Amino acid sequence: MTHYPKAFIFDLDGVITDTAEFHFLAWQKLAQELGVSMDRQFNEQLKGISRMESLERILELTPSSRSLSYEERLRLANQKNDHYLEFIDLINPDYILPGIESLLKKIKAQHIKIALGSASKNALKVLEKLLLTNYFDYVVDATKVTKGKPNPETFTTAADFLNIPYSECIGLEDAAVGVEAINKANMFSVGVGALEHLSHADYLVGNTSELMFEEIVKRYNEKI
Ligand code: BG6
Ligand code: MG
């Protein structure tokens, strides 16, 4: 008999919508302003990481930044966020990635809980712009956790709130640190992206249009 999970916990940026690209473009713009170049390969390590930690990694590329005060760092982080907000100002439900809304509908139809597990402080705003807020029983964003991914806290906080054992949860992620966080939480991890970065996922798809409810549940059942 099929065993259904009790919750799906979705990462936001790069899973529900392609805001991962806007984060990249905003960081790239900031890097340019700092006189350093930053490519997509470098960006992989920023996926799923908090705003301040991402800034620190970019500043490591610029020797002159070592002397920057905390206030100056905060100003740079705000500058990046201003660039990002310009991008997300434009988004609407057309920016939901293929297959995501039908997956959310299927999960809801099975009366399975849905949560968000995002490292972003802008998560609620993005969900609202996509008109997806009503699907979510609980939202964990950067304001609700002290330890970011790859620490499992983002995912365990969602499961704890919903009062669901971790082994009954499925987490979906596009970031290597995100898949690591799901695995550390003892949840079933679904990776969305390339094997090169996400080989540690329990189940991997190349893109969101391949996310099928029945297949995810089947793979989950094969593991439990
Ligand atoms: C994560 C993204 O979801 O949120 C990162 O993958 C981003 O790229 C992080 O830096 C923090 O986002 P924000 O919106 O709080 O700056
Ligand atoms: Mg992501």
Automatic annotation (TrEMBL):
InterPro entries: B-phosphoglucomutase_hydrolase, Beta-PGM, Beta-PGM-like, HAD-like_sf, HAD-SF_hydro_IA, HAD_sf, PGP-like_dom2. GO terms for molecular function: beta-phosphoglucomutase activity. It comes from the Bacteria. It holds the Pfam family Hydrolase. Its cofactor is Mg(2+). Gene3D superfamilies: HAD superfamily/HAD-like (3.40.50.1000), Putative phosphatase, domain 2 (1.10.150.240). Its EC number is 5.4.2.6. It catalyses: beta-D-glucose 1-phosphate = beta-D-glucose 6-phosphate. Belongs to the HAD-like hydrolase superfamily. CbbY/CbbZ/Gph/YieH family. NCBIfam families: bPGM, HAD-SF-IA-v3, PGMB-YQAB-SF. This is Beta-phosphoglucomutase.
